[in-house]
Specification:
single chain, about 240 residues, six-stranded parallel β-sheet, 6 strands, binds magnesium ion
């Protein structure tokens, strides 16, 4: 049976189903800045192919300004930075108000992992503020003590599907990918984790259920009833 030493979790969509609130936060920021942008569910689902809120807004800006070949770095970057600040403040307040809960099975799996000496880590493209808000709301102020490593947009700037965030988590924990399992909700996340050598369990959300999950270790509705022993078995089967 292969050793299982660490579980590495994506955050948005995996630990919690957060993208509806992210979408509301983006639309709040657009209204606050008097812009005529509105991301409905269908458009946001498409835009989620771009990881990173700032990158997503820049991609949309370019889509809506096809005639502008040379993006005036200063003006557009300044606008996007301001929109992202407003958006993140709104999102953080709603998370701290308790609007988001962990997905089914996540807390039980985390508790079992820690009880069995299996390390926990987070590998996300979202902002550090959002990680702290969600984890603090779910696990309390001492939430960071549960994780051997946390990498986010602030310390792994190349966004999924680039593998940087997973490569840096593996460096931080000092373990080979072969004794770890990644948990993701999207094809971008699956590509990033796989490129870093990680077997990956997928739990899609309504925003990502249409994605291609070829190469996943498992694709599950959620993590209800998934325990360490089951993960060890799946990981061993993957090694055969
Ligand atoms: C999901 C993302 C993030 C969020 C928005 O991150 O791509 O961009 O959609 O958060 P992951 P920000 O699934 O890797 O956790 O606006 O802070 O980027
Ligand atoms: Mg995700």
């Amino acid at each position: 049976m292969s050793k299982l030493a660490a579980l590495i979790f994506d955050l948005d969509g995996t630990l919690a189903d957060t993208e509806s609130l992210h979408r509301a936060a983006f639309n709040y920021a657009f209204r606050e800045e008097g812009m005529d942008w509105h991301w409905d569910e269908a458009l946001y689902t498409r835009l989620l192919d771009i990881s990173g809120g700032k990158e997503r807004m820049l991609h949309y800006w370019r889509e809506t300004h096809p005639d502008v070949t040379e993006v005036d770095g200063g003006a557009v970057d300044g606008l996007i930075a301001k929109l992202h600040e407003i958006k993140t403040a709104y999102y953080e307040a709603k998370v701290k108000a308790g609007e988001i809960s962990l997905r089914p099975g996540v807390l039980a799996l985390m508790n079992e992992a820690r009880a069995n000496g299996v390390e926990l880590a987070i590998a996300t493209t979202t902002s550090a503020i959002n990680v702290a808000a969600l984890m603090g709301s779910a696990l309390g102020d001492a939430w960071r003590d549960n994780f051997v490593a946390v990498r986010d947009a602030s310390n792994a700037p190349l966004k999924k599907p680039h593998p940087q965030v997973y490569e840096r988590v593996l460096q931080d924990i000092g373990l080979p990918a072969q004794v770890c399992i990644a948990f993701e909700d999207s094809s971008n996340g699956l590509k990033a984790a796989t490129a870093a050598g990680l077997a990956t369990v997928i739990t899609p959300t309504s925003f990502t259920s249409h994605n291609d999950f070829t190469g996943a270790l498992k694709v599950l509705k959620d993590l209800s009833g998934v325990g360490i022993e089951q993960l060890r078995q799946w990981r061993s089967q993957a090694d055969r």
